[in-house]
Design brief:
By secondary structure, this protein is of the alpha+beta class. It contains one helix and nine strands.
Length: 122
């Protein structure tokens, strides 16, 4: 019986580790940007051409420490995340919005591509 309990605990630990790894991978979308490197966006100033969701760090001076950007053919969603802070903007083609002091202009938008320009408000 002791070996059965040990086997179950071992299996539970393995499943927990696999689930944690899967969730971690799902929470950190792969970068799908062309043009300037996402590291150039740290200061809140860059141009991006996206073919999928991205997540990248930004300067803590904005009150958030990372931006997550995803899009559909109708909308760009920008989420700023920091310690105990979340700010979000939903933007359409041609619009400009702001997330914690970072302006986001949607220059072009389709189901497969979003072209954005980020500039600091501060």
């Amino acid at each position: 019986m002791a070996s059965s309990v040990a086997a179950r605990l071992s299996l539970a630990a393995a499943l927990s580790a696999a689930l944690s790894a899967a969730l971690f991978c799902a929470a950190a979308p792969a970068a799908h940007a062309s043009g300037r490197d996402l590291r150039d966006c740290y200061d809140g100033r860059c141009s991006l051409t996206l073919s999928g969701p991205v997540s990248f760090p930004v300067s803590p001076r904005f009150g958030v420490t990372s931006l997550r950007i995803s899009f559909t053919s109708q909308q760009v969603r920008v989420i700023g995340i920091g310690t105990n802070v979340m700010s979000q903007a939903n933007l359409s083609r041609g619009s400009v919005g702001s997330v914690n002091g970072i302006s986001v202009e949607v220059r072009s938008l389709s189901a497969s591509r979003a072209v954005l320009r980020l500039t600091p408000d501060l």
